[in-house]
Task: structure prediction
Amino acid sequence: MVEAVEKLTKKSEDPSKWYLQLVRMAKLADYGPVRGTFAIRPYGFAIWERIQRDLDNRFKATGHQNAYFPLLIPESYLKKEAEHVEGFDPELAWVTIGGKEELEERLAIRPTSESIICDFYRNWIQSYRDLPILINQWCNVLRWEKVTRPFLRTAEFLWQEGHTVHATPEEAREEALKMLDVYKDLFYDTMALPVLTGMKSPSERFAGAVETFTCEGLMGDGRALQAATSHDLGQNFARAFDITFLDEQQERVYPYQTSWGLSTRTIGGLILVHGDDRGLKIPPKLAPIEAVIVPIWRGNNKGEIRRQAEALYFELKDFGLRVEADLDEEHSPGWKFNEHELRGVPVRVELGPKDVEKNQAVLVRRDTGEKEFVSRKELTRRLRSLLEEIQENMLQQATELRDANTRRVETYGEFKEIIEEKRGFVFAPWDGTEETEQKIKEETKATIRLLPFEREEGKDLVSGKRGETAIFARAY
Result:
C-alpha cells in the first residue's frame, strides 16, 4: 500500500503557509461557514483544556471564583462608558431581530463583559463588607475582525475574563499586577513561553482602563504576540454604572475595578514559538499525550509485540502518565513516526522485536530528536524525568530565540533596518508622545509592545527629546 503523506511547508521558507497547514494537518482547528469562525477539533481543544485547567487552579489559589454572565448586552449599557464603546464599536456584532419581531433596542454580542457585569455589581455591592469581589468567567466572545487567522485572530474565540472590585486604588493595582504575575507564571512554567511584562502605552491601553499591563511573547518569525493583559480600571466603570458602597465611615463612595484575560490565541503563540519544520512541539505539561508507544512488528511476531505494547501502555498509564499506544495496522512505523512528530507528542516510545528480546524500549525526544535505550525496569521513572528535561529545554530554547532577537538601537535608521529585515524586540527611548508613536507606526509598522517596569533614560530617536525605554516590534 502506498501511503500518501502531505508535505508540510518549511517554517523558514513560508511561515504563514506553514502555520495554516500545520493547524489543519495536526487537526487542531477547521474553518467555519462564517468568516472568522473556526471549529476547534478535539486535539486542539485538549490543549486548551490543559491551559484552562492550569490557569483555573491558579485563579482559585488566589481566591477567585467562577461565575457566568449574559451573552447579549443592551446597547444602552455599552454607551454608559464612552471610551469603552468607542474602542469596541468597529468590532461589534448586533442582534436586531428576536424571533420575527424587531427589537426595540439593539443587543450586542459580547466583545468583552465589563458593561454587563457592572450592572450586576451595582446591585450586588452595598457595603465595604461586600468587597472585594473576585470573579472570573470562562466564555466565548465575538469581535468582527477584518483579517482572521486560526487561533491568532478570530471573530469568535474562547477566553477567560476576570472582573474584580476593590475598596481602594491600592488594592485594585495590587490585584492587576498579581494577575499579570499569574499569567507570567503560566507562560514560563507550563507553556515554556518566556514573555516580557510591562505597561501598554496610553494609545494601546484597553478602552476605559487607567492602566493596562501586558505579557508579550516573541514568535518564531520575529513578530510579537500580546498573550495576556491585566487592566486597572480605576473608578471609570464604577462611575459610569453608578456602582457605589458605604465605606467604614458610612460614606457612599465609588469602588475600584480590574479586569484581565487570556484567550485561545495562546495556542497560536504555542505553535509559532515551538513549532518547527516537522510540525508541532508541545511542552509536556500541556501535551494531551505525553508519550506515544509505537510497536514495530514484522511477520509472525506481531502478536507478541502488540501484547507487549499494550502491557506497557497500562503500566505507564497506571504510573500517572498521559500515554497512547498506536496499534494501527494500516500504516507503517515510519508513517506513524512522522504523524506523532507532526502532532508534537513530546516522547515516542519505540518497541520492536530486539527491544522485547532485550527487555528494553527506545525513547525518542521530540524537542531534540535524541534517542536512548532504557530497560523496562527503569522505563517509567526515566520517562518521567525525561519529560521534565524536555519541559526545561523547550523554555531554554524559546528564551534563547527571544534573546537572540532582542536588540537595542542608537539611531532611527538602525531601528528601521532591524524592524524591516530582522524584526524581533527593539529597545529604544520614546519621548512619551502619541505623535512620535504614530510616526514610527506609520513608517515601520512597528508598535510599542510594552513599557518596561524599569526604564532607562535616553534621547528619542525620532524627536530628539528626552525619553525612556520602550519595547517595539511588529505584531500579530
Observations:
- DSSP finds 14 helices and 24 strands in the chain.
- The chain has a mean pLDDT of 95.
- The longest helix spans residues 379-404.
